[in-house]
Design goal:
single chain, 840 residues, alpha+beta, 6-stranded mixed β-sheet, 4-stranded antiparallel β-sheet, 33% strand
Amino acid sequence: MAAVEAVSEFDVREDGEIVRIQLETRVGVFNGAALGNSGQEVIIELKGTDARELMDRIGKSRKPLAAVRGVHVLPGEGESARLLVQLRGPSEVLDETIVAGGGDRSRWELVLGPATLGQERPREAAVLSSIGLVGHEGRIELQLAGNRGLVAEVSFEDKPPRLLVDLPGVGHKELVAVARSFRTSNPMIRGVMVRPIDKGSSRLMFHLAETSDLVAGSGALEGDTGRISISIAPDAAPARMVAGMSALSRIRIDELVGRLTFVLPGVDGSRVNAYTVDDPPELIVDFLGWTPNRLDAAVAGFTSSHPSVRSARVESTRLGSGRLIFELSGSSPMIAKTFDVAHSELGGQQKTLTLAVRKPAPGSEVPATRVGRDGRRPDLRRDLHDRARPVVVIRPVQLEQEGYWVRKTPPVEIPKGAKTLLGLFRQAMSNDPKYQVAKSDLDANQEAIPQARAGHLPTASFDYQHVSMYQNILRASNPTFSTGNSDYPSQDLTLTITQPVFKAQALVKMNQASLAVEQAQVNLIASEQDLILRLASAYLNLLAAKDARELAKAEREANEKQFELARARLDSGLGTITQLHDTEARFALTEAREIDASNKYDDALQGIKEIVGVDLEDIQGFRVDFDAAPPQPASVDAWVQASLEQNLAVQSRNLAMEIARLEILRQQAGYLPTVNLVSTISREDSDGSLYGDGQKVDNVELGVKVNVPIFEGGMTLSLVREAMARREKASQEREQEFRRTERMTRATFQSVEASARSLAALRKAVVAQDGALQARLEGFKAGVGNILTVVDAYRQYYSAKRDYLQARYDYLVNRLRLKQAVGTLSRTDLQDLGTLLKTD
């Protein structure tokens, strides 16, 4: 067969940390190789080779290796193929040889070692200056900024799910200072902790909402600033295969205007996570819960019908689920992901996944691989990541004890000044009373933890007493006792230390305190989302008021001209008094509308000031018009389900319910005994006594004190009943929040959907009314119509334009409300909105 004749041997071997890749081919088949993806992939270009036959040959000889994550065969252009060897960590080229064999054969060998071996110069001392987080469709990207000596060592913990990022050379105090400024409301990140590793290194620990997998990690150098990007996506272990389970049946690619559509039928019962990456440009589709072999048949029969899609291959995620990867010719951001249900050829229903990505722009294509030509030795060292750049290293580490919590709010950098929406948001965070109340509430609730911890810690008290005694002994039954007056001082010093041994109420109180702090954190994030929505709504309301004022002014000026024209026509005998009065009445109404619009504009300015705290000058409108898009996915049930799981108000009510449940346990613990270890050290020093000379006595006591409550007048029973009633109240409030959230999500979803459909129709109405106005003006000039039809045409035109502009603002506000309903509203949305506005 062609593949057997072209490639007679392929082998990957390990020798400690050294990896050797050996390839024997017919002369002219080996076309070059490259090391990419920050040293984690070797791409070998082969000519005159059938990809499917080569895949069969490689598959039979493949063996598991600790340093190799996978070996794949990718079809190339024409009669060519590529071998992709994926490594588990960054590597560098130690040696490469190409020698002639017997007959028409040649042998190529590549020797790789870890990127830290053979380092020519020491790296700079690591400095970390900022931590950021950016959410993408289906994945999140952690961004670390510092100097060129920055190194991040990444690993995962599954129970509970955590992302661990070790930062060698970054001290604990330095990391704490940077981590305090980290903010995120991404639902995938539940909390962040800091932990010292040793004297000069620290660890960031991100608590995740679910188990995850590393998608990509890279370093970049911008001047003296080094940046590390760590991209992760949700992951899950595959379910056990059962007879009759569905599989991906085929793959189809369609091209629409400016987009590529991937149609994947047969994905019933799967959780699909799709996203794109830029380096290298790929579309990745994770079928969480599926085994990879459920994708093999579709990929084996796939042949790309579009030059922008070079190949498809199957891999597995970190936990073993199937991963489908499409290699693209250039960067192609995700546009949409939808599920459609259709009747299959065999009867029944079949679910089809449709993914849309933007078509790579001309000139954005990247080469499939960087290869040598005509037997030349390719310079693989050039393809290594620059040693001056920051490095991402993947290595396993053990989970250790946590440090402290860092509060969560979105990570978008806020510029200074008030010319942009984010600049206004900066001022609002400092000046808005409602947000400041939530911050103060968090600060107050954070003190609950040390207060609850105090119930477990020892207490110490010191008592001092000085007494002057004056005695007059008149008679003593014992003749040895003297009679008469005497006086002497007496001093008592007592130090008491109490260490609680068993105190059930204090144990429950600690759990309550942690939940109270978490609830306050959720409430602060909810308050920030509310501030984002209020600020954006107020800003758009100001734009709408400005548009209304300008339209009212233009309509008044147009009617004023028509009124003057009607008066002139009456004076010349061409018009009637009725036309003059009717025109004057319409002109007066436009004056009233202009006054009302001006007042509403002033009130809208005050609405911004109420939030930001400062006066705002005049603002600009949109840079360009925009097309409204309906929500994705198009199913309201998916949005409702997400809101019930992610809405911050619902999360706060869930925490309140748990706190109320623990309160019952805390009050019931009042029936339990308490055990304390008590130590007392005392000194009694007296210069005299009734019996003669004074004395000095030191006492040391150490004992266990057990207190068993028997009856406290029914107080504990009453407190338990009160706690149970409050739990019932919390339960009803949670149910009320569930229903309110579902109703709000459905209504907002329908509003966004309706706005997206109606906006295009309203735009057409404006164009039509403008045409009607021009036609009536021409008709009036030609003597066909009268002046009242022109005035009415002006009114209808400005009314249609006012409705259209208002609908644009309503659509944008409803989009933000829908994101708030599912708990994903963030500063990024303000940033996206700001790109539409003339804020420069």
